[in-house]
Amino acid sequence: MRESVLPAAQIMITLALVAWMIIGFTPLPGRWLRWKMFCRATFTIVQLTGTKDGHAEPVNVYDHLSPGSFILGPPQLQAILDHLTHSGRYDRIDGTGRILTVRGEQPVKVVAGRVVL
To answer: For the chain, first and last CA: distance in Å?
Structure first.
């Protein structure tokens, strides 16, 4: 009897943990991934094109973040765009994308190096 109680308890604990993980990571209306780290974070997904002397090329803003960083909000995006244009690397940067926040998904544009929500 005692031998069957231990595996039954392990199975119950495992099922409870799996259920808790599934419930904890299900989306709510207007939110994605209920886990607090994701609910409070702001992610920006953009496709940018930088122009210098009439030549256009794609710009990857994540190349300009510190290693391991992946959360990029509008203020950080604007700071990177300012750096790229003021350093003379690009004359103009334009693009479109999305911002994912606790309020859901919003469109974002970059026009002449300025973030427009």
So the answer is: 65
Cα angle 4, 7, 9; round to 5: 105
CA distances from 90 to 12, 35, 58, 109 (A): 59, 38, 11, 17
In terms of DSSP H, where are the helices of the chain?
Answer: 2-24, 36-39, 74-86
Q: How far apart are CA 62 and CA 51, in angstroms?
A: 18
Q: Which 8-state DSSP code applies to residue 35?
A: S
pTM of the shown model: 0.64
pLDDT tens by residue, 3-41: 666 688 888 999 988 877 776 665 555 444 455 555 567
Q: Smallest Cα–Cα separation from 73: which of 54, 49, 50, 97? A: 97
State the Cα–Cα distance between residues 1 and 106, nearest whole angstrom. Answer: 58
